[in-house]
Amino acid sequence: MLLFKDLMWFFKLEKKSYGMGILVLVFVALINLFPPYAVRVIVDGISKENLSQGILLKWSLLLLFAGFLVYGLRYVWRLMIFGASARLARLLRKQLFSHFTFLSPQFYQEHRTGDLMAHATNDIQAIEMTAGLGVLTFIDSLTTGGLVVFSMAFFISWKLTLITLLPMPLMAWSTSYYGTLLHKRFHKAQAAFSDLNDKVLENISGVRVIKTFGEEEAEKEAFRMLSADVVEKNIAVAKVDALFDPTIQLIIGISFFLAIVFGARDVVDGQLTFGQLTQFTIYLGQFIWPMLAFGWLFNILERGRASYDRVESLLKINYQIFEREGVTDQLHSGPLTYQRASFTYPGARLPVLEEIDIFVPQGQTLGVVGKTGSGKTTLFRLLIREFDLSKGDLRIGKSSIYDVTLKALRTAIGYVPQDHFLFSASIAENIAFGKPSAIQEEIQAVAEIAAIDKDILRFDEQYSTLVGDRGVTLSGGQKQRISIARALLLEPEILILDDSLSAVDAKTEKAILQGLKAKRSQKTTLISSHRLSAIEHADLIIVLQNGKIAERGSHPELMAFDGWYAATYRSQQLESLIEEGGS
Amino acid sequence: MVIRRLLRYLTPHYKALKVASVVLLLATFADVVGPILVKIFLDRHLVPRSFDRQALILLGGGYLGLHFLSVGLHYRQLVRFNQIALKVIQQLRVDVFSHVQHLRLEVFDKTPTGALVSRITNDTEAIKELFVGVLVALVQNFVFLIGIFIAMFSLDIRLAAFCLVLIPAILGLMYAYRRVSTQVYRTMRQELSRLNAKLNESIQGMSIVQAMRQEKRFREEFATINNAYYQAAITNIRLESLFVRPAVDLIYTFALILVLNFFGFQSLKGPIEIGVLYAFINYLDRFFEPVNTMMQRLSQFQQSFVAAERVFELLDDDRVTGEVNTAGPPAIQNGLIEFKNVSFSYDGSSDGPTDVLQNISFTAYPGQTVALVGHTGSGKSTVANLLMRFYPVTRGEILIDGVSLSEFSNDELRTNVGLVSQDPFLFVGDIAKNIALSRPTVNVQEISEAASFVQADEFIGKLPQGFKEPIGERGATLSSGQRQLICFARTIAGNPKILVLDEATASVDTETEEAIQTALAKMRKGRTTIAIAHRLSTIQDADLILVLYRGKIVERGTHSDLLLKEGLYFKMFMMQQGTISLNQNC
What we know:
A: four-stranded antiparallel sheet; B: ABC transporter transmembrane region fold; six-stranded mixed sheet
């Protein structure tokens, strides 16, 4: 019931729908008292032999009218209440999605996509069920239940009512009890199923080993055992699940029996007519649903409660990157400076970057190299404020990046990340991602610089070709080049290529670098790479090692220094030679 | 077609099904007789006020007895039908899983792991819903409705005949609902999957969205899809309100009016049995709940159907590995391996640009080591894949002891050819189980011998539970070097005559590196070995080194021969020498 209180804000928001829906629901419960009454009148007419065609016609018409009225009204309340609950789901999904767009990368590091998806689908569904079916069962079991009992007691016989309703609470209790039992067993069945799933996953991923050692039969046997376990656990579920209907049947049967036995006595005593007895048993039938619903209600609420808590706690997470007070949205271009910049990932012990000092004059190119994990990507992520520095400062022109708005900062920077992610849309839309208003000429121009133009024209639908999950499969190199074009289109003051040339061949790499040079002569470019040929031309190259700058200088300087850079360069030269067949 | 195939799975459960059906019939009978007993009570005792004690006790006792019987039988049949359905699904699952075990590797290459897993587990689970939720419920409810009709006919043939009108009315409603709902339901599912796709994509690409400041656009786009889904949901609500419960209730009202009028007009002509009226009203009351259930289950039907189709599609995939059934298949005695003009392409085309191997020929004499070196993509691993018979040789020939590879039985090949692959794959279970696998020939003694042979006993001994130490998911608790050693032990425990080593590219920790190299050297001794090497230092003592470049053998000879040539091998060697000194510098 507490959940209803938590959802009160929504009920208030939708008070018209809920108010109307509940009103109609009560009205339907009232009208439903009528048909049993009509039956009573006719049965009494038959048994007292004073029925006339007129009476029969009149009550038939009334029944027909009531039937249609209820049909119409039921349509109304369903639309009101279930419609409102669908709106709640829509609202929560919208809130959750908005929230997602504000959360920083740290959040996405800590939460798996699958979990977030589950919150946005399953949990919201459970909440929707509470706001729809939950409200319905609550109101309906109260009104229908109450009205039926009231009518039985006051219009027919309160004594008979008391006697026949005696077993009823047992039904509510047992359905609720079975529900809990079922929940537990269902959990076990789910766990068994999940074991089965794990086994299959292991089997499919280890298919080579299985084939090598001829383990197929053993695997089949193991699978047979696990699937037998699933069956066993599910039969345990079925054994409880199958209790529901017979139990209800049992209790109702007893109630009916009591009604007939004691009702018959009242008929003999003349306290009750035949019609009343028939009416009474029909009412009794109508009472089943509210009792059932009541048992159900607890399960719906319990599930809704857990889901609501999960969604709420997700909405409360606050990993946003905040802007300082009094930030301006004017960012004047100029040199880029890392000033004694240090950074430790939240929750980590050791810093990833320590006291980094870099100065890149406007229009120059910085090359960043180093082994995996040396801090190259972090260096860039700090610049676009996916994370904030622990110590030191980062400046563009005369202002600290923390003194301008996120919007201004990110407008000035074009970032091509390592993992080239494309959206399910056409190639043109993907390139124009940051500037949906871009015209075809602009798109084509950047595609040319990124050396992807020719590849795109080779597709049947050229720039309209769909990519992503449902579209064509692109090679890693093609995806990288589209990502580069995507960033270039924004003509950013600072362009970051985070190892984004790793999957293109040497010739293409050269072409792209030349294109960049021509197009971005006045603008700053930052490039990190495993392959040194990609940064050879840079004005300044830094070698990162364990979060510190180990070597710095231009290519000739670093070669003369004869350290890690020079050794790696020579080895890569040889490697590319081998790649080309040694000649 | 799909349904018939699913039903065929019921054949082995014919007997259980018969029992369950008999129980269902009995339960339904006991259930349906109740109102008739009440009718007898009303018409023979209450109306004429003749309360014969014995008859009443008999009647009451009969009613209660039948009721309890019916409840008990109902429970039994529910459980029984569920059991049968669950066992059918288990059989289906085992069938799919078994079938998948015998599929050729190319199927695994081309199908995402998730899709295969989903066929075996989730899709069969959906079929379970079809069986338990739809088919069983339909049968039960159908039988119940028949029972009610029989009871009605036994009470009053004419009225019961009138009530037959209900059947076309309900069938018509069902038909109409299914027709309209299929489309609406499909739209709703489409919108839902669009919503999920958008959500999934947005979460995965959020960093790009934020870096390019497209949050607002994404919120708007999501709102549009969210709204479309809401609209579809509302349409569905409208449809269900129009066709399902309220409509069924309306039909109930019509039926009630029909029954009342029938009796009303009868009573105008002469006296009627009031008990019959009572029983009819009672039956009507109970007639419509099963109808509601059946209507609701119908919409589930579509979904399960699609799942069943997918499962059968996988079951029908005939790309299975063949088993040789010749009498007395050849045995591997010495381990002489010959490749004769082998060319291969993974897409199955003959002579084309997609060939990963071209005219590969070489001979490995018993006990010798032949090493394959070359850049990534040069075709080294394909040589191993073919020798392991993961893919069929279509052009050229591979011979072992002079016999074509395809003529050996799976068993013979697997006991005599051991593969150590790049990826040290461990199963869930303990270390002993991972070394022995299911081979009955490998006992405790041999497990520990194999472990000590590859020098894995040292670290295993240090584990709290030794050989009984459980291995977590994918062996996450062990270092990659330790996992590698366990895989070595696994191979050596089978004592194969031929060894295929696909050396790990990823560098393992220096601590185990040495152990691994020693183990490898020991393993190779006395066995014909095909070694795929990434580090040239490990195969300098090979009897023959083949240098592969784009699927062709470009150089061959011993280490010293090849160095003298100053070709590709020489350059690779120089480079690796360079990197080694480089690593030492750091």
